[in-house]
Amino acid sequence: MSITSVPRAILADVGWQSTRSVLIGRSVEFDRLTAVLDTAATGQAGVALVGGDAGIGKTRLITELAERAEAAGFAVLVGQCAELGDALPYLPLADALRSARGELRAALDARPVLGRLLPGGTDPGRESTSGLTQQQLFGSVLGFLSTQPVLLVLEDLHWADQSTRDLLVFLSRMLQTERVCLVGTYRTDDLHRRHPLRRVLAELKRLPSVTSLELAPLDRHEMTDYLAALGGTDAGVMRKVVDRAEGNPFYAQELLDAASEGSSMPDGLAGLLLSRAELLSDPAQRVLGGAAVAGRRADHDLLQQASGLDDLAFEESMREIVSRGLLRPDGEYGYAFRHALLQEVVYNDLLPGERTRMHAEFARLLTAREGAAAELAHHYLAGHDLPGALAASVEAGRRAERLGAPAEAHHHFDRALGLWDRVPDAERLAGIDHVALAARSAAAAADSGDNHRAISQLRRLPPSAEINERLSYYLIDTEDVEGSIAAAYAAVEAAPEGPVLARALATYARSLYWTERHDEVEALARRALETARASGAADAETSALITLAALAALADDIPRAKELLACASAESSGNLAIDLRAMFTYARVQYESGDLAEAATTADRGLRLARESGLNWSTYGTDLRFLRLLIHYVAGEWDLAEKVASGFAVRVGTPPEALLSSFALFVEVARGLPVVEDRLSWLRPFWTDDITIIAMGRGLAAEHALWHGDPEAALEHARAGLDAMLPNDPAVIRLSSTALWALTDLGRAEEADAFLERARVPAAVGPGSVRRGPLGPEGLAWLARAEAEWHRAHGRPAVAAWRGVVEAFDFGFVYEVARSRWRLAEALLAEGDRAAALKEWKLAVEAAESLGARPLGAALVELGRRARFTSAPPTVLTSREQEVLALVAEGLPNREIGERLFIAQKTVSVHVSNILGKLGVSSRTQAAAVAHRDGLL
After folding, report:
1. Least enclosed by CB within 10 Å: which of 288, 590, 750, 798?
2. Taking every annotated instance into account, which residue ranges of this chain make up the domain HTH luxR-type (predicted)?
3. CATH of the structural domain 26-217, one choice from 3.10.20.30, 3.40.50.300, 3.30.930.10, 3.40.640.10
């Protein structure tokens, strides 16, 4: 009989079958779960977290949900965490992926990164930075789940490894429009005060997309109904069970089964569960004990070998165990305990010597199995085999690296380091020396986000060129620039000629780039380039080329910068992160020099690489996505820009998400979309730390306020943004011009000079207080806009200045050309040149209509009406719009209008936008004035 067929034969022989769970007492919770599932079916992903004590009915509820999902056409993937001393990285994900079928299996096979998680999965073939591999894995999971409707269940998250917890957070935040329902279950009684899942749950429960359920014990009435549904008939027995079970369905079922079999009902759940196991024959008890040592699940072949029984005796023992409901067949190759509590009490009932011997036997059997290093380490430690534990821990760390689980890799390596001094001949067993292993552990810690731990480990090691180069690299990320420079200098001084020196020089150049020692960077980068080419260090060569290109762009030598970046991005360096950095930098330089078509081509290349390698959500994968949005936006491809923006989460919870969300505001503010208010409300908490988020978010919030007739709020946003930014940041120019627009609307010309001076600083002063050449086309255009806005603030038409702005933006920035023509038309009218004004106005109107730029369109309609360029008849408002307009005229905000009319705030925003468009005005104040003037109230 084959290994895979035995469990099925036993299953048929004992008549074991699954039965549909009864949802007595859980209808409310089930309705909430199905609501998440139904919402996912419409294209709005949702997450549900189901907590409760052991045996309270979590799995029963999820089983019902899975049946409902399958009936609705969802693919159902269920994975379970395991209680191992060192949890296997991504165990529940790998467990879930094994059941992928059909279209989902094809999508899985198309993603080799995910295939590595499966039994027999291919090795990546080369060592790679585990943090980068984790980004690839997360991106691949997200792409995999987007192929069709999926219910993904991760059970027993209280036992999850850190990488699984990180994946849970990532998916909970990133799943937006996919037809995916993600469900996680956990035991509340296992979450002690410092349990790592507590922080994750607290973070996730704040997200609107997350539904949190806590299953309470059943009351007496519900418990009685539940027992009756299970077949209970004896009122006396049922009453005793209800008294004893304390609302726990699993405990109740075990008590009822014990009573039905004529057994007494022992005190405590552990005694109850063991009472059933004690009825087994001696061989069956030995097999059950072995299964408990193996964990929640046990492989058929491995369990038989550990038991020492022949085929026939083992098969008889398994029939006995399965018939009593202690183990159940699991998949096609093994068994699982009916409940985790049962595995725990059986394991704890073993004598210490029994446990040690069994762990040692499992370790011996697993030695020949590929990919079992983490389990081996667990069994070796439990079996007190320290040399075996050290060797297995190092191998488990290597495998975790390859799987993209840096936290687990660090854990395994750190445990091996802890065993090092207790094991003779440790270096031979580990296959690596102590310093190299500690450096590897530090790298894994950094990749898992713990730079401080990595730095601490490296500083305890004997200094060397390699150690100092890595130390410098991690210190850059903690913004300890001086420490980074010192470590990089030490690395350069100690490094021999070759790849190590090349990387040390490249890192040194990076660390000096933003300091006042800016003039030293080029010589360092050139030396790094020469050393890299001589030693074949392709990654260091690419990094040096990027740095040299950045210096050339800073000096306004754009042709040289493009030449260097074309070389840097032509071929793979062997390091995906550096390759994406090269493509992003190349596309950015092309964009900033006004070459939009070239920039689009390069960005698309980079995005293809990010998608194919699963790095859409890596640092440079993200940068390429928002750069692509900006290229669409500037080129006037707003439908495409809005499509990209819609994929940027509104409900943000981390700085990277907030950064992407800020860029989405470009097109959404310019189109006057209702989502702007919601997006801004989620971004506000991030307007304290990240300068880029502050610049984008505050600047676009200011423009939004101006379009809605609130220049005071706009000026407040602009001031706050400028105060947070470095004076030489190019984004200061745009934000200063927005502040000048607000000052004009407020009639406060006396403050305009200060903002114009602020706008001029970045044109001359670069990083590290170094003087530089002129800005790129867009920067120069915004500076021209600031100069023209300054004239407007002082009441001067300044036709020549506004013509200059139009010409400056005409490198391809469709929207800003139209906005500038609006102001140019106003200036021409002020000077009495109606014919020229009409020409500019018509061009602006045409552009605004083609873009769908409703706020600008409304402003142009108002200008046309004042200038008598158009004699359009009054627009008829709907009855609801008249109601909204009346409340707008009273000065009520959208929230209060919604409360008065019993409609959603977003709906009010849509009505207000429609009213502004129909009346041809750009602000609520103007709408109220027109309504009074024309008798619309």
Report:
1. 750
2. 870-935
3. 3.40.50.300
